[in-house]
Amino acid sequence: MAREIRYIRMRLSRILMYQIALEVSTYTVLGFTAATAILLGQNMVRRLDALTAIGLTNDDLHTIISALVLTLAPYALPIALLFGCLLTMRRMGSDGETLVMQASGMGVGSFLLPITVIGLLTSLVSGYLMISVEHNARLQILDVIKQIAMRGGRLEPGQIRGINYRQIYVEERNRLGELKGVMIIDHSRRSGLIEIFAEYGRVFFDDSTHFLHFELKNGDIHFPKAGGRHDMDSRLSFDDFDYSFDISEIIGRDFSATRPRQMSLSQLTDFQERIQAGKDLGDLHERDPIEYSIERQRRFAFSTASLIFAVLSVALGRYSIRGGRASGIALCIAIAGGYYLAFMLSVSLAQNRILPPSISLWLPNIVYAGLALSLIFKNEKSAP
Question: Which one of 124, 350, 352, 369 is most buried, by most CB atoms within 10 A?
């Protein structure tokens, strides 16, 4: 009889763990879709107008969105898992299922095992994306932007295009970037308006400096005077003139070339050693070796956030808090927000040499893991 009871209890426990895992997975998928859409929307809104101005096509847009999803996924996954775990735990608590399971002799392991397995799998996926995929996706976005710029910023003949406080008009343009009948009106200078006219020219993008260059021939530069008196305008004629301006604002800081977030782990180690050895850095943008150490630690430390969030959600979800799913959403926002703020603080501590990156960037994980374990121990100790 006792053996049959144990068998029934074990079978019931397996069924309940399967149902918990299924519900957590469902909520996690929904949370991941929502979090990714929000993050993607924020990134696209910030860059879409500027990218469209320099010639974004539908194919370019699809490529950029696909790459952005890969860069955002490692950050959305921990939030999504936390969302799924807390909503499941709070729903079970508000419906009385947690109390029934405890009364049936099912301890914290019935919750902890399936959620921890999902957390571990999510951490592995997040780690793979951060270590092996994210930097390549960032490079892919940069390559697309370079291709757009090299096409001449979609300088369609007969149309005026606005790029970084400049209006550019070309009468003719071929696929090689060769131009005919060029007019550039520059509003970016505090000293006043500049008007440039040229019979011929060529446009190209320098990816080492992020400057868009117009090599102009046979033209004039006008410096209009205030008040609209054209007889007072200054004029400078030229045979050859290189007019260029920075479009790094369009590219964005995160997608500038040779930054730590666009490097593989082996490249991070190599560049860090080159800096410390005083070797030639070429076009390397970041010259502080601490930044490469921070980036290495960030990828590993942040990858474990999903597992820690999973354990913490079990610890918090078993406490009686009114509100059901609503309280789970509020807890998710508070925990995720606190973790990201703590992570930013840990990066600042490393950048200011207060703590080494190998310690500083793991502090949020240590604090959250310690909190989760202490709550679980306290809950089990006080459970009837």
Answer: 350
